[in-house]
Amino acid sequence: MRSPRLSFVVGCLVGVSLLGACGAPADGEQDAVVSDDAQELDASALEASVSAAKSSMAMSEQALVTVTLRNAGSHAVRVLRWNTPAEGVKDSLFAVSRDGQPVEYLGAHYKRPAPTAGDYLRIAPGESLTSTVDLASVYDLSETGSYSVRFDLSGAHDSEGRVSALRSNDLTLWVEGRQSGPQLESDGQVHELFGTTSYAANCSSTRRSSLSSALSQASSYANNSVSYLNGTPGSKPRYVTWFGAYTSTNWSTARTHFTNIKSTIDTKNIAFDCGCTDSAYAYVYPTQPYRIYLCSAFWSAPMSGTDSKGGTLIHEISHFNVVAATDDRAYGQTAAKNLAKSSPSGALDNADSHEYFAENNPFQN
After folding, report:
1. Is the Cβ–Cβ distance between 173 and 55 less than 8 Å?
2. Does 105 fall in a domain?
3. In a shared domain, residues 45 and 169
4. I need a labelling partner for 90 at 20 to 30 A (CA). Which of 82, 155, 285, 358 fits?
5. 125 within some domain
């Protein structure tokens, strides 16, 4: 009997994950994922595969790859909606390399609240999710060469710090270099400039006022962080909690990051776009400073404190390559603390670690 199949065709990379994204709950908060059947959150039965109709792709051709995620088990599996073909690319879910060297992910970096039951899709036994995608829309395929492509969640952490093991076969492709990455989403939109801040036409006066207050809070966080890091270095609780064991080199890196964040807030034209209706807080494209897209969760967040409006702006600004070039290695306070213990260098590359250091909630010296 033919297995049922759900098919999606999108112009970007796709994936599937049981993992939460940025902004998971702080310590002591109740898990937001509601499941009547915990068995369905076990992804061990999922199989991932990648394939292509052609092994060699000229510049004039799209770099199309087909991704299939199949439930080979005997029970249904729930997967996060934003990490499936249903909503396109929301994270770097592939390992892509050229001539043995990793290539850059050029897609959006999101900050999300903890997932709820409504954020999951259910894949029945024998069912598959299939999508044909253009790798060049989110990965740097600008240089000609031999590319290796693999769907790979082995480096992804959930809000508790667990690591997924889901990965596909390796696919080898010869790709002629081409323009890569997303186009600027707000091309053609009018941005009104107010000092060093501009707003897209989709930002109402109420939201502009809220963003002005959020930017002021972010500035306060950045000033406090720089002042702290300009003080006497050492194994201080606040630093160790979010960035791990003290070394002079790592302390200096943190200081440089926050100096750049402060300079961005003080001197750069930060462009806000309020058109996102996703459940996330916000997202940016690291190669497109200094534009920040605000989403649904941002507007209901507190102005200060854990996962706040001001902290969200610190998080997103840190992603820009010209600022700190952070990634999303661990999500939420629990996982960020664990990352600091296991990999201080990883914490210094993690956007949530910067946000929680800046928010400093609960307060630490």
Report:
1. yes
2. yes
3. yes
4. 358
5. yes
| Cα 158 from Cα 162, distance rounded (Å) | 5
- In terms of domains, do 237 and 322 share one? yes
Total of domains in the chain: 2
Hey, which residues are catalytic here?
Answer: 316
pTM: 0.84
Question: Is the same domain home to 216 and 164?
Answer: no
pLDDT digits (tens, 9 = 90+) for 296-322: 999 999 999 999 999 999 999 999 999
Q: Could you tell me the CATH number of the domain that includes residue 237? A: 3.40.390.10
pLDDT digits (tens, 9 = 90+) for 4-56: 334 333 333 333 333 334 444 444 444 444 444 567 777 788 899 999 999 99
Does 16 fall in a domain?
A: no
Q: Are 43 and 153 in contact (CB under 8 A)?
A: no
Tell me if 17 is assigned to some domain.
no
